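Example S7 (structure tokens).
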């Protein structure tokens, strides 16, 4: 009598592991970029909201310098305001140690004129890629 045991051979298991490894190698960077894009969208919205707060303050007080109620940022970015009497620059700086620290778009900026920019972005990256507009 011959007993047959059913199961997987070592070769079959190694093939499955190799396929999973290839899929993860391709999917992981795409997934990370998808998460980063969402985080950039969040901070872009926050910067626009802060710019509106500054514009309302300027309308009432004819200056940006003593504006209150500005956000400090979120878990991935710190918002740094540079305020003068007649102008402002809001910079969303990437927080070190977060997944956004090495983001290709660098730090996002918005000015009182509505100009959108990037500081320390990788070469070849466009404003449309990072701001989505």
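Recovered sequence:
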């Amino acid at each position: 009598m011959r007993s047959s045991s059913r199961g997987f051979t070592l070769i079959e298991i190694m093939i499955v592991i190799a396929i999973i490894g290839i899929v993860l190698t391709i999917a992981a960077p795409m997934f990370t970029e998808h998460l980063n894009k969402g985080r950039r969208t969040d901070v872009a919205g926050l910067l626009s909201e802060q710019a509106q707060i500054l514009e309302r303050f300027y309308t009432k007080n004819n200056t940006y310098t003593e504006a209150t109620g500005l956000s400090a940022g979120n878990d991935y970015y710190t918002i740094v305001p540079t305020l003068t009497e007649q102008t402002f620059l809001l910079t969303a700086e990437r927080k070190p140690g977060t997944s956004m620290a090495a983001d290709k778009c660098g730090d996002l900026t918005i000015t009182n004129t509505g100009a959108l920019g990037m500081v320390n972005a990788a070469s070849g990256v466009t404003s449309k890629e990072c701001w989505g507009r």
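Notes on this example. The first helix runs from residue 10 to 61.
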